[in-house]
Amino acid sequence: MPAPDPTPEAAPRTAPRPRVAVTDAVTPADIAVISRGLDGFNAETSGADDSEQLTVLVREPVEGRVIGGLTGHTSRGMLFVDLFFLPPELRRGGLGSEVLRQAEDEARARGCRTAVLYTLSFQAPGFYRKQGWTFMGEVPCDPPGTSRVFLSKELVGTCGGSGERGVGEVEA
User: Fold this and answer.
1) Residues with Cβ < 8 Å from 99, sequence gap 6 or more?
2) SS3 34
3) Looking only at Cα atoms, what is the longest distance across the chain?
4) Quick one: pLDDT band at residue 165, thresholds 50, 70, 90?
């Protein structure tokens, strides 16, 4: 009869713990992993997979290069405005209202009922209020005296523009 093995049974191996690191050097591929993962979880959990980018570009009239515009996305019946910029010389002439109207119209065409955004207190909360957006709240931030202002707008029953589907270009 063979002698018993004197070595104790090996403990089950576990996978090494993932490393966690704070960085400001992120790649678009890194962001895509996080975005796809969250989108997949949300779609699996809710049964809806309707997130779609929405961009309205403002182009320079001669060369056609982008000089401003709005970026955001639609999802679950909501328009989320992420970024909105116009060069100073193009402000206060109605162009910003047109860009925002086109984004809202496209969101309506996609079935959105509500829109949300935040801006800084020194940026454009008054502009958004003039466009029918409602103050939801604000959070103080730096520098002192500055705040993030959160706004929303009901899109149902508030038609603007032609009602045609599709984001058109804005002539500068």
Assistant:
1) 56, 58, 68, 69, 70, 84, 86, 170
2) helix
3) 97
4) very low
The pair of structure tokens assigned to 149 is 């202002």
d(CA 78, CA 49): 13
Contact 114/79 with Cβ under 8 angstroms? yes
Q: How do 146-154 and 114-120 pair as beta strands? A: antiparallel
Q: Is the pLDDT of residue 90 over 90?
A: yes
CA nearest to 79, candidates 115, 117, 128: 115
Q: How many residues does the chain have?
A: 172
Residue 48: pLDDT band by 50, 70, 90 thresholds?
confident
Sign of the four-CA dihedral 146, 94, 114, 111: negative
Q: What tokens were used for 73?
A: 């996305």
